[in-house]
Amino acid sequence: MPTFEQLREHLDPAHTVLLTVECQRGVVGPDGALPELAAEARSSGTLHRVARLVAAAHEASVQVLHAVAERRPDGRGASRNARLFRAAARLPVQQHCGSAAVRIAEPIEVAEDDMVVRRLHGLSPIAGTDVDALLRNLGCRTLVVTGVSANVAIPNAVFDAVNLGYTAVVPADAIAGIPADYTPAMVRHTLALVATVTTTDELLACWKRP
Fold it and tell me: DSSP 3-state assignment of 171?
């Protein structure tokens, strides 16, 4: 585990970006497509902690990127090569472009300087999207990954970030998946092998102005 000073150096606002993954109303909102995941993200405090991290990032001049998964109403361009995609197409709440479902969920506040990257296909918020190019243009070296789900999109984001040469940082209490006990197992046995695992409070301390 890195020391606090090492962690603080990793998280220098000059080269750090905070990524929120699928923290959208249609996923983690009270009327989300997956009620169990939405309930876990809210009852565990995960969504509230993501909101705290976003607010702190704004205060510390850390760039924030919001990764949103959406779908055209006609389904054109959407992936169909996995059971997950076919199941998502049948859910009562659809992540249609321009709908309320793809807006960032409360209590997360989106600032004018934030960037929102939308994807119509795939499992990852990074692969096949504009995220990598944006990170490089922003001078990013450290990517903080938050949001949902620990089952699919979060590990995809972490692996992609590491493969692309970024240092991945995961606040373990600011990600959620289902069932609830799966997330700590994923962190301990998988993400901890490739990312720096920390907590929301440690991140907030690193970004607190002297």
Answer: strand
Distance CA 13, CA 96 (A): 33
Strands (E), the chain: 16-21, 63-69, 115-119, 142-148, 167-171, 175-176, 196-198
**Residue pLDDT tens, the chain, 210 long:** 778 888 888 899 999 999 999 999 999 998 888 899 999 999 999 999 999 999 999 999 999 999 999 999 998 988 888 888 887 788 888 889 999 999 999 999 999 999 999 999 999 999 999 999 999 999 999 999 999 999 999 999 999 999 999 999 999 999 999 999 999 999 999 999 999 999 999 999 999 866
Give the residue from 95, 129, 134 showing the smallest Cα distance to 113.
134
11: tokens are: 């998280």
Q: What proportions of the chain, in percent to the nearest 5, are helix, strand and coil?
A: 40, 20, 40
Alpha-carbon span 197 to 156, nearest angstrom = 16
**Encoded tokens for 204:** 């907030």
3: number of CA atoms within 13 Å, CB side?
Answer: 2
The DSSP line for 37-63 is: HHHHHHHTSHHHHHHHHHHHHHHHT-E
User: What residue type is 68 in one-letter code?
Assistant: V
